[in-house]
């Protein structure tokens, strides 16, 4: 028996050291090279060995006894039925036969494999890549497009800047050092939150957001946090509370000052944009009789007119970078603040100057702003999907409830498919989707739901067949991420817990049964796959001048910091375009930044006209009636979404989750600090624990996501998942994204609190 061993591994929240003793993870500690390591992993040992791990393949009793989609079970079974554990071979036979039955009887268009979710870091065992490759080999599936994170941005940004949103995010933004050296004023809509930048897709090793803000403060850069919560930006920033959902109105108010006080950069607008005159007519009220003056804006957004005026003048008088958090576009008409922020930046005329212009998603995830040369590759090829039907990712309940219904999506007119089989691997829709009671209802309609999960999440509990999946600590992998300079060998630290298997092995077994193993696995073990992918990755990067060590070397060194951080002196984003927009045009129809878009105007959507427009959301403070408080449901600071939740829920006082409420709103409802409360609206209710604080503006409550949906007999979620309250509607016909942040509720003392 050997003594404790330690090894560095990686995760979406960064690298950390893991101590193992025999078959168990016994401790975690920080990775020494990270200036601001994330504490998220501290519950990892408890979570990995938790009693709520799925121990063996499990099949829902009703499905096992009556067969898929049997009458009477469609509306009753999932969620309250019990599970029967089966040996692997039997459960795999059942799943393979069912996949085959559905595709024979209904075609592959009846299989939904969108399977959204963050799964885990690690390039080969990426659950989504695995399920998509498998279903492609099996004849295809209905896929989902875009993400819960940025669907509205992904729809609108290409119309405005002529490039994919993710390209802009990773390649055409001011890196932190450029901001530190040039920016004088940082205007942050939705803040820049170090709590969120703990995390990045695939990992962020060097957490720099907080240290950069210390530099900004030391250099006297003005930092204005425009958000409903003081805590949306690091300490020491100015806080301008804004009513959620009203940022477009505030931005219009600022634009009005720039236009009417001669502060707009005419030369830039003429050379580098199209459509300003039409927008100007709207701004001044010539088209609709309503001037978008600071007084007009103040009545909507809660920031007073004098402050809006002063803000506009200050922004025009110095190098200003406008940043917009992702949260703003995760609300009704979330495309508008994204587009309007671009217009505002264009009016200031600083797009293309170092430290000026516009930036999206700083702080939303850790890699944004980090100056690194891209290191691409190490991706399992997913193959081609013969099924062309897609849905916008957040429209899953609409799809399940309305087969055959028609809807609009970014200029296309689409029809929802008739789904019989749902396959989920690497996500937790009963954490992430809006209006969970509606999803629960929709979820009863398919004939079969298959889920791979390490834990008994709310989604696993609503499946018919659950396959226990390993966690990254139970298998070998490689980690590398966008916006990160590190490469990790993730060793297999412990044997699989219970009878868990890797997603790859599960799919391989199913592929054998379906006669497609040759196509799916190409006869390779996971170790062989990793060797092949790694070699390609080395060769690709060598061409770009980046030396990647051999896999054996990486295995023994555990990690390497590639010399790509801080590399080169990058140009300011859009510098070439600014210098000569004819020589370096954008890929928009006009070649310019589109303040008015003929394409969008041509769609004829009332929820997204041809230029940025203020149209009040249906749910926001301006429409508050029966439910007077606006609920924002940000990402949790102490974890990643719903991951590792079972271990957090075991900590006394942690569940139900904590809702932040202003003293005024608490007092008028008889709510004391630390008391249990109930949040409710017409869609649902959940329990939470109140934290009474002036860090949130009056009229707004903040309850983070992440709790495992677990309703009591009355249907009240006991854990504090905000998605029992949120509305399940698209951002607009352009983006069809999640509108999670547009939600009205009320709060009362919890009737069950003794
Ligand atoms: N109200 C509200 N709702 C929101 C948001 C909001 O702001 N407000 N934000 C939305 C956003 S932006 C997002 S990204 C989503 C996040 O929602 P999700 O991405 O669904 O959340 P996760 O908890 O990361 O889910 C990942 C699941 O994969 C499992 N898993 C981990 N590793 C593996 C593996 O190797 N194999 C398999 N098979 N499974 C694995 C985990 O146990 C977990 O259950 O939530 C969305 N929901
Ligand atoms: N620790 C941790 N970090 C994470 C994640 C996690 O689960 N845990 N998840 C990651 C993922 S998947 C994503 S997509 C990003 C999300 O990054 P974001 O979308 O930027 O973050 P959120 O936490 O949803 O919201 C940030 C803040 O925006 C404010 N806000 C909400 N609505 C409005 C509005 O209308 N106007 C203004 N001005 N402010 C508003 C709220 O006060 C909220 O606290 O975070 C990532 N980072
Ligand atoms: Mo996200």
Q: Percent helix among the residues?
A: 25-40%
Top CATH class of the largest domain: Alpha Beta
Question: Quaternary state, please?
Answer: single chain
Question: How would the global form be characterised?
Answer: globular
End-to-end C-alpha gap: 51 Å
Specify the structural class.
Answer: alpha/beta
Biggest sheet layout: 6 strands, mixed
Ligand kinds: ligand MGD, molybdenum atom
Number of domains: 4
Radius of gyration: 26 Å
Biggest sheet strand order reads: 5-4-19-18-17-6
β content, as a range?
Answer: 15-25%
Mean pLDDT: 96
Q: What's the total helix number? A: 25
The parts where pLDDT drops under 50 for at least 5 residues are 71-75
CATH architecture descriptor of the largest domain: 3-Layer(aba) Sandwich
Number of strands: 29
Q: What is the CATH fold-level name of the largest domain? A: Rossmann fold
Quick summary:
This protein is α/β, with parallel strands linked by helices and 754 residues long. It has 25 helices and 29 strands.
Describe what you observe in this structure:
- With 754 residues, the chain is an alpha/beta fold.
- The chain has four domains: 5-48, no CATH class; 58-146 and 386-561, Rossmann fold; 191-370, Dimethylsulfoxide Reductase, domain 2 (3-Layer(aba) Sandwich); 621-749, Barwin-like endoglucanases, CATH 2.40.40.
- The chain has a six-stranded mixed beta sheet. Strands 24-28-25-27-26-29 form a six-stranded mixed beta barrel. It has a five-stranded parallel beta sheet with strand order 10-9-8-12-13, with helices on one face.
- Helix 9 (247-260) crosses helix 13 (305-317).
- The longest helix is centred in the N-terminal third of the chain and has 19 residues, at 88-106.
- The chain starts with a strand and ends in a 5-residue tail after the last strand.
- Residues 71-75 have low confidence and may be disordered.
- Bound molecules: ligand MGD (2 copies) and molybdenum atom.
